Amino acid sequence: MSLFQRIFLSFWLAAILLASSFFLLGRYSGSEIIDRTQTILEAQAEVVTSLWVEGGQRATMHWLFQQNRQERPLLLNKDGHSPFPRRHDRNEPWPHGRLNAGIQRLPFGRVAVIVTVPDVSPPLYLVKMINPGQMHRMPMISMLLIAILIIGLVSFILAVVLSRRIRHLRSASQVIAEGDFSARVSLTGRDEVSALAKDFNLMAERISEMMTSQRQLVSDVSHELRSPLARLRIALELAERAEDPAIALARIGKEADELEQLVSDLLSLARIESGQSQMEWQSTPLCELISTIVADANFEGEPLERQVILEHCDESNVDGDPVLLHAAIENVVRNALHYTPRGSDIMVNLQCLNETVQITIDDQGPGVPESDLDRLFEPFARVAEARDRNSGGYGLGLAITGRTFIAHGGSARAENRSDGGLRVALTLPIK
Question: Does the predicted TM-score (pTM) go above 0.70?
Answer without folding.
Answer: no
